[in-house]
Amino acid sequence: MLSAAEDIMAIQEGGNVTQQIQNCEDHITSRHCTTVSTGAVLIADNLPSLVVKLTFPFFMHRIPFVFRHLFVCLLQSASYFVVAFSVNVPMSLAGVCFAAFGSGIGEISYLALASHYPALAIAAWSSGTGAAGLLGSFSYAFLTDRSMGNLQPKVALLIQLFVPAVFALTYFFILVVPKDVYQPGWHPRTWIAPEEEDVSFLNLADEDRS
């Protein structure tokens, strides 16, 4: 979403980001300002994630991983749709907030899930979070650059909807969930992880360390 920050602002002000003149100006006679700065996008991208990381660890352990994963995928999809079809800057910023919420919830959830796998999973999670920023930025730049994809930001965002789809399929059809991870059933009473499960997880972790 940060890669699309400047494009979001340009679109809301009636600009066409794929047909802008790229030549340098010989004489600067006026200041190029926007009604809402790119800093607003930075706040929308960081503040929700910060709130999640400060508050959710107090109760997130009662929510099964499968529900967290579904919620993250829904937030990812919603962020792409909202930004792609936004009609004003506040709507675009709301889409960025959805992405930030999904990122914050996903980060604390998948790090906790990785603790149930061998130590290599933690290293893979750390490397993956770093690579995701680079791949996301480069993919958006490739799709919208005039000499490459030359697509409108709306089309580029909709194309990237395959990411949450692959994300969801990976968890349900590829990932082997360990037996010590709480799995809810169809009955609503099982949709909240009991405290006893959390205690058993801690005991298992202590035994592994010893």
From TrEMBL:
GO cellular component, one term: endomembrane system
Lipid bilayer topology: Multi-pass membrane protein
Organism: Oesophagostomum dentatum
Keyword Nuclease carried by entry: no
Cited Pfam families: CLN3
Keywords: Lysosome, Membrane, Transmembrane, Transmembrane helix
Subcellular location: Endomembrane system; Lysosome membrane
Similarity remark: Belongs to the battenin family.
Superkingdom, natural source: Eukaryota
Biological process per Gene Ontology, one example term: lysosome organization
Major subcellular site: membrane
The UniProt record lists the keyword Membrane: yes
SUPFAM superfamilies per record: MFS general substrate transporter
Chain ranges passing through the membrane: 65-87, 93-113, 120-143, 155-177
Name of the protein in its database record: Battenin
